[in-house]
Amino acid sequence: MALAIAGERSGVGKTTVTLALLAALQRRGLQVQSFKVGPDYIDPMFHTQVTGRACRNLDPVLTSEAYVQQCFARHVAGVDCALVEGVMGLFDGATGSEDCASTAHIARLLNIPVLLVLDCSRLSRSVAAIAHGYRSFDPRIQLAGVVLNRVGSDRHLELLQSALEPLNLPILGVLRRQAEITIPDRHLGLVPTGELDQFNSLIDRLADLGETCFDWPQLLPLLDAPPPQPSEPLVGQEQNLFPGPQVRIAVARDRAFNFYYADNLDCLEQLGAELVSWSPLSDPHLPVDVQGLYLGGGFPEVFAEQLADNASGRDGVRRAIQAGLPTYAECGGLMYLCQQIQGFDQQSWPMVGILPTTAVMGGRLTLGYRRAIAQQNSSLIAAGTTVCGHEFHRSTLTETTPQPLFQTWRYDPSSQEAPSLEGWRSQQVHASYLHLHWGSRPELAARFVRSCTQFQQPIAKFQ
């Protein structure tokens, strides 16, 4: 029923292998549900475009082990097969010192086999030592076989096969060096699907690759196992935590803002919210009669000039927020609410101006899980509440607020790093660099929906 696609390390081709498998399975007419281990947003966009089904993140740090199992069981029900794309190397976890939230951890939780992708571009006989080490390192892992990626020639393949033969470990795929199949990247990873003009042709080439490069007689039986059954309802799925009137919430959805967990949007809809897509890049005003605004992450720095050019859109957002519109702004959304964004080229562009600070792009990457305690009430969270989130950005703010939203610590319990203060609350705005997953914390979504129902100003007034 399901298979986890893991790598021996980052950059070995997990995403290419996963997309080739997904595209080939789709071409065979199968219904495929995909998952992504960890907090990533961009790989799930590619999965969703290939399968036509929302990819689900499996992250026990942002949610819980029980939620990971329940989410997986619920979303594989009724499909033909499922693929779980891993994160980093197979055993690399959230802290680096243990494998919590690693691909291996998720494979154990779900009791599914692992397909290990090996980068063979600079290997011959040593490939056997790597494969043997990964198979023996944790006997709880069901290593179904390997995919040999970036194989240079027939002779190279013969050497790899000869080295692996004594291990009796199936070679389930062989991918030659595919210079023509490349997905462009930039400062935060792959370029999202919405910015790739030739994406459909790319998927066609990946499907061709998938059909010809994998050992389907051995692979398909691995995907035929019966699906697990959810032991309990998903938290928030079977209970209406706020049975109030329906509210309309504008969700920023365009090339600048597209980092959303599907489960977060599900939570809002299950609580009675009608989600209305809106583009800060091109729409001159907010949708009519909305009572809340959700500004997800993305790449506002890449589209800062276009965001600045949409002056009426920025002005409408500012006036609505000043009138009390509940607003949840996450990472890129926080940047949009600043006075300006200063790009990598040092040029500055005006933004909404609700937060009295400038987001400045730099070379330093801020990355990692965070434990956070809310320091004050907001439209999303109550003071004193503890959450786990994830940061991933290359911008910093020129000013700090005297009343920060969060006190944060690195997730690693062994870290001696001092806590930091982060996040802004202004009017009914909750703005933070922390990405939060609400799947196991539906009370956060319920609080935001409740805040939205209390906004009674006619939004047309701010258009």
Automatic annotation (TrEMBL):
The record marks 435 as: Increases nucleophilicity of active site Cys. Its cofactor is Mg(2+). Gene3D superfamilies: 3.40.50.880, P-loop containing nucleotide triphosphate hydrolases (3.40.50.300). Its EC number is 6.3.5.11. Residues 248-441 form the CobB/CobQ-like glutamine amidotransferase domain. The a and c carboxylates of cobyrinate are activated for nucleophilic attack via formation of a phosphorylated intermediate by ATP. CbiA catalyzes first the amidation of the c-carboxylate, and then that of the a-carboxylate. Comprises of two domains. The C-terminal domain contains the binding site for glutamine and catalyzes the hydrolysis of this substrate to glutamate and ammonia. The N-terminal domain is anticipated to bind ATP and cobyrinate and catalyzes the ultimate synthesis of the diamide product. The ammonia produced via the glutaminase domain is probably translocated to the adjacent domain via a molecular tunnel, where it reacts with an activated intermediate. PANTHER family: COBYRINATE A,C-DIAMIDE SYNTHASE (PTHR43873). This is Cobyrinate a,c-diamide synthase.
